[in-house]
Amino acid sequence: MPGPKPLPLELSDRERGVLRGWLRKRTAGQALVLRARIVLACAEGRPNSQVAQELGISRETVRKWRSRFAADRLEGLVDAPRSGAPRRITDEQVESLFAGTLYQAPPSGDSHWSTRSMAQAAGMSQSTVSRIWRAFGLKPHIVQTWKLSTDPQFVTKVRDVVGNYLSPPENALVLAVDEKSQIQALDRTQPVLPLAPTTPARMTHDYVRHGTTSLFAALDIASGSVIAQHYRRHRHQEFLRFLKTIDDAVPKDLDLHLVLDNYATHKTEAVKNELLRHPRFHLHFTPTSASWLNLVERWFAELTCRKLRRSAHRSVVELERDIRRWINEWNKNPKPFVWTKTADEILETLAAYCTRTTDSGH
Question: Does the domain formed by 154-193+203-352 have CATH 3.30.420.10?
Answer without folding.
Answer: yes
